[in-house]
Amino acid sequence: MQITESCxxxxxxxxxxxxxxxxxxxxxxxxxxxxxxKNYLVMPALSQIDCAVGDRVEISMxxxxxxxxxxxxYLLPLILTFIGIMIPFGHGEAWMLMGGAIGLAASVxxxxxxxxxxxxKKKYLPVILRKISETKETDND
Length: 141
Description:
The chain is an alpha+beta fold. Helix content is 37%, strand content 29%. It is built from two helices and five strands. It has helices spanning 63-86, 93-120; strands spanning 2-13, 16-22, 40-47, 56-62, 127-133. The chain has a five-stranded mixed barrel. A hairpin with a 2-residue loop joins strand 1 and strand 2 (16-22). Helix 1 packs antiparallel against helix 2. The longest helix has 28 residues, at 93-120. It is elongated and about 65 Å long.
């Protein structure tokens, strides 16, 4: 199943387009995309069609790839925390607590690096399907 959203092209760097995805009602409770204090997210996308900055486009992302991000986003911190607790097992509760805290702290850069690696793989990038509307700017040169 494909997830499709409409968004606006913000910029282009080489073969990648950067699109601005605005938070909508479907996003409530999910938080997979990283909507934090802002109500939008700028993300890279691939395209077979030519787009200009300001164009409204429809992007597609396979649902299983989006849902697969939960594996490393939520399970990796739990696993590293558990490993951090189990390594000093038998040496006292204070050491176990410290090991769990170190495992949890180690998961933050690990998740960041995994996310960065996935963002660079083309099979995990959204794809621009079609233009919804074009920019209305004209050059007066």
